[in-house]
Structures are given as C-alpha cells and as structure tokens.
C-alpha cells in the first residue's frame, strides 16, 4: 500500500483518511489530508519545525490527539503545515510538523476546527495501516 491520503463524505464536515506502511505513517498522512483542506500543500514551505509529543495507549484516541495537537500548534503560532513525521515507543508519541507562517500568497481553503471521534478508525489495511476520522469544518 502506497502512503497517501483521501477524503470521504460526511454531511457538513469532512472525513480524512491516511494510509501508510506503519501506523505512524498513516497518522502523518491523515495530518497531511487535514492541512490540505486549509491550504494547498505544494504552496507551503518547510521553514519552521514544531514538535508535538503526547502519551496515549489507545490507537484511535492517539489519532485524534495528534491531529488536534497539530491544529493547536498551528493556531497558536500562526502557521500552516505541509510535512509531518511521527514516531512511537509504547504509549509515547513524538512527532514533528514542518511549515511556515500564513502568507497572503497561500490560497486559503476551509478552516478545520478540530478532529472528532466520528467515524474514528485505525486499522490494518492491505499492506499497511489506515487511519481515519471526521474533522469539523
């Protein structure tokens, strides 16, 4: 399974889905899908790196924590992200997001308010993992 992301329909909100060879890669792709809703990733330069660390035993809740922690960092710092990396040891997750400050040149898409528990799933898929949830827009 090639790493990547996709979307699925959900009423007024948007479902994001990340796939990858590992859980961590699937989570990184879900983050890429979420931020691509807000700005085209090809327009975002990796000028700033932000660390996101948390502890969570439950894989599904870890996805929501990861996505919401990224949104919080982006809002707090006035950033938009386009590249993501995540590592896990037991219940400890350590990740980074790379991006830059919002600029007038960024095409603004739809604001994502937060990741939700709706349609939340983290499961093995053909040759890898799939991580999905609905994000509130």
Could you say what the CATH topology is called? Archease, Possible Chaperone, Chain: A, domain 1
How would you sum up the major sheet? Answer: 5 strands, antiparallel
First-residue to last-residue Cα separation? 29 Å
CATH-level-4 superfamily name: Archease domain
**Alpha plus pi helix count:** 2
Structural class: alpha+beta
**Tertiary shape:** globular
Per DSSP E runs of 2 or more residues, the count of β-strands stands at 8
Radius of gyration: 14 Å
Q: Give the % helix.
A: 25-40%
CATH class label: Alpha Beta
> Strand-and-helix sequence, N→C?
EEHEHEEEEE
Describe the protein's topology.
Blueprint: E1 4-10, E2 13-20, H1 23-38, E3 48-55, H2 59-77, E4 79-89, E5 92-101, E6 114-115, E7 121-125, E8 128-136
Antiparallel strand pairs: 1-2, 2-8, 3-5, 4-5, 6-8, 7-8
Helix pairs in contact: 1-2
């Amino acid at each position: 399974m090639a790493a990547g992301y996709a979307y699925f329909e959900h009423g007024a909100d948007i479902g994001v889905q990340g796939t990858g060879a590992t859980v961590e890669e699937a989570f990184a792709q879900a983050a890429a899908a979420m931020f691509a809703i807000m700005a085209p990733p090809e327009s975002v330069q990796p000028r700033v790196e932000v660390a996101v660390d948390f502890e969570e035993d439950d894989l599904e809740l870890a996805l929501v924590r990861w996505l919401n922690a990224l949104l919080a960092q982006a809002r707090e710092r006035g950033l938009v992200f386009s590249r993501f990396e995540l590592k896990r040891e037991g219940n400890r997750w350590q990740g980074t997001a790379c991006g830059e400050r919002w600029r007038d040149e960024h095409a603004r898409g739809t604001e994502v308010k937060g990741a939700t528990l709706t349609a939340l799933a983290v499961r093995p898929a053909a040759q890898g993992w799939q991580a999905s949830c609905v994000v509130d827009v």
